Amino acid sequence: MSSVLDRPSATDADRELRADLVGRAAKLLPLLTANARRSDDERLVAEENITAIEEAGLLSLMRPRRFGGLQTDVRTLLEVSRELAKGCGSTSWVVTLLNVCSWFTGLYPAGAQADVWGERPNNKVAGVLTPSGTARPVDGGYLVSGRWSYASGSAHAQWAVVGAPIVGADGEHTDQGLVLIPAAELRIEDTWFVTGMRGTASNTLVGEDVFVPAHRYLSAVKAIHGEVATPFTEEPLYRAAFVPVSALVLAAPQLGLATAALEFVLEKAPKRPMSATFYETQTSAPTVQLAVARAASLIDSAHLHAYRAAAEIDEAAHHGVFPDYDARARTRMDTGVAVSNAREAIRILMSAHGAASFAESSPLQRIWRDSEVASRHAVAHPEVSAEVYGKSLLGIRGDVTPLV
C-alpha cells in the first residue's frame, strides 16, 4: 500500500504553482471572513467573493490550458479549497464544485468543450450528477427534461452538467449519462432552505424538452470505468479516475472548516475562563488541552488521508493508468475518513470552547453547521465508503454502488 502524500511525478514548477495558488487563496481570507455571515444570511455567496476568486485565477484550476485554464491537479484543488474554507465554507464549496464541473467538461468531445469555452473561456459550469432527468433520442441529439436538486454554484454559472439516462421509445433505459446545457435554457427554483452551507444556493435546476446536441452527451457508465470522450488524451488531468475525483474533492472544504475551528479555539483559549472550575483560563485546563490535542490529531489524519488519495489519483493519471476497483475503493475510504475525522474534530472543539460556540455571533456555529450538512453528501458518505472498502478487501466487489 502506498503512503506517498504527493505524486512523485510532480515537478518543482508544479509545486511552486500550487504554493502560489494557495497563497492567492490565503490573501482572500479577510474578504471571505467578512462576508461569511452575509453569505449565510442571504443564502448566496457574496458576489465580491466570486469576483475576487475568479480574478485570482482560482476558478480555472481544472479548466484546460487550451482555453486559458491552469489545468493543475487534484492535490492543488484540495489545497486551494481547503484554504478558502478557512474563511467561508459556502464559498469554498461553490469554488470546489465549479472547478470539478470544469473537470467534467474536460472529459467531453472537443466540440462540447468548444461550445462552453470557445468564445467565453471564463464560463463557469455548475452541475448535478444524479440522473434525475431523462434524455429521449431525436435527430441530432436528445430532448432532455428533469429536475436536478442541489445544484451548488448554479447562481454563478453559465452552463450546467446534469445527469439523465437515455430512454428509448419503449421506456427502456439504454445508457446513463451527463448532458451539458446552457444555463439560459434552464430555470432555477429556490428550494435550498437548509441549516448549513446555506450560501451555496444549491437550488433546483429545471428543464423541459431542452434540445441537447449529441456531442454534448457523455456516458457516465463509461466514464466510471475510465472511458471518456475527450480526444486530448495527452492531458493527464482528464485521465484521472471519475468517481475518485468526484468524491475526494468533497473533502476539501471539510479540511478548511476543521482547521479554522481549531485556530479559533486556540486563539480564544488564553482569554476564556473555564466555567465552573478553579482554572482561570481554558489554556490551563487539562480537559481543553486533551480536547485540542485530539482535534488537531484528527485534522492531521484527515489531511493525510485526503492527500494520499490525491497523490494516487494524480500519479495514476500522469501515467495514463486507470486504477483497479480495490484502489478506487480505498480512495472512497480515504475520503470518508477525511470527512468524518474533520467533522469529529469540529464537534470536539465546539465542546471545548463551550456553550458560546453556539452564539449566532460566533463563527464556530456556522463552521459546525456547514460541516454537518456537507459531510452528508452521498458520494462522500463515510459509512457507505467503509462498506465498499471492507468488501473489496474481502474480495467482494460491485454490489454496493456503481460509484466506485
Textual characterization of the structure:
The chain is α+β, with helices and mostly antiparallel strands. 48% of the residues lie in helices and 14% in strands. A hairpin with a 2-residue loop joins strand 2 and strand 3. Helix 9 (252-268) packs parallel to helix 11. The longest helix is centred in the C-terminal third of the chain and has 34 residues, at 286-319. The chain is globular.
Topology:
Blueprint: H1 12-27, H2 29-42, H3 47-55, H4 74-85, H5 89-105, H6 110-117, E1 125-128, E2 133-138, E3 141-151, E4 159-167, E5 173-182, E6 187-189, E7 203-213, E8 217-219, H7 220-224, H8 242-248, H9 252-268, H10 286-319, H11 325-353, H12 363-374, H13 382-393
Parallel strand pairs: 1-4
Antiparallel strand pairs: 2-3, 3-7, 4-5, 5-8, 6-7
Helix pairs in contact: 1-4, 4-5, 4-9, 5-9, 8-11, 9-10, 9-11, 9-12, 10-11, 11-12, 11-13
Elements, N to C (H/E): HHHHHHEEEEEEEEHHHHHHH
Write down the overall geometry: globular
**Which strand order does the major sheet show?**
1-4-5-8
The major pleated sheet works out as: 4 strands, mixed
CATH top level assignment of the largest domain: Mainly Alpha
How many domains make up the coordinates? 3
Radius of gyration over all CA atoms, rounded: 21 Å
